[in-house]
Amino acid sequence: YDNVQNLNYAVKDAESIKDVLMNTFNFPKKNITLLKDKKATKNAIVRAFSDITKKANEKDRVIIYFAGHGETMDLPEGGEMGYLLPVDADDDLFVSAIAMDDLKRISLMSKAKHLLYLIDACYGGIAAVGSRSLDAKTTPNYIDKITRNKARQVITAGGRGEKVIEKPEWGHSAFTLNLNRGLKDGNADMNGDGYITANELGLFLNEKVTIDSDNQQTPQYGRMTSQEGEFVFIYSVNPVLNENIDIADEGEKMDLILDK
């Protein structure tokens, strides 16, 4: 960072997520954009967002992962606005940082079927709406139904006033440590069906990060639109999926990883 305190493990966090996506879930290397250190400027991030809106097609899945600082600005009417800080951010958040409203706009502009934000930062003003999730145990053709509709989902490391906890013994932040455990090791597959939904991942992170951080941060999960589809992580070594499942895996998988 140019103007705020550096984080110790953000680069390692981002690189580990890239590794998991490529080697565990078979995301093509050519579709992954990794911006780290001095390359993670606001301009570079916005350009990468723009590329996603242009390149992602109607059956594609997109993950946007960010490891860095988050800040919250109070609004005159009592609300709050969350910002993600690129490497060149300064005190003028509106000019130099990435507003959460921008993330929602990107999600609406993209043709991608399923888009998931994984934000390893703490801030307020999350632009999310609540919605019900289908029960895997009682819903026939569960995977088929949750992947049929579009999804715009977000999981964040914590809320306003909370700090991103990272420790030398982990070599990661608490959020990304458990993100790796949940995805790479399969621990977030709560119902043991061989798939990990964004909802399952959110529940897993909420519990485990809260414990590992000694209640100093609690991840938040939500949807950016009322669309009730689900981003689904599909293991590259899993059996061949049912051909009737109209998931975004049939198209290209894209990923943008941001960190400082």
3D architecture notes:
The chain is an alpha/beta fold. The chain is 28% helix and 23% strand. It has helices at 10-23, 42-55, 93-96, 100-109, 142-146, 174-183, 198-212, and strands at 32-35, 61-67, 70-74, 80-84, 98-99, 114-122, 151-158, 166-167, 172-173, 195-197, 220-223, 232-234, 253-259. The strands form four sheets. The chain has a six-stranded mixed beta sheet with strand order 1-13-2-6-7-11, sandwiched between helices. Strands 3-4-5 form a three-stranded antiparallel beta sheet. The longest helix is centred in the last third of the chain and has 15 residues, at 198-212.
Considering the chains and any ligands shown, give keywords for the structure:
single chain, 260 residues, alpha/beta, six-stranded mixed β-sheet, three-stranded antiparallel β-sheet, 23% strand
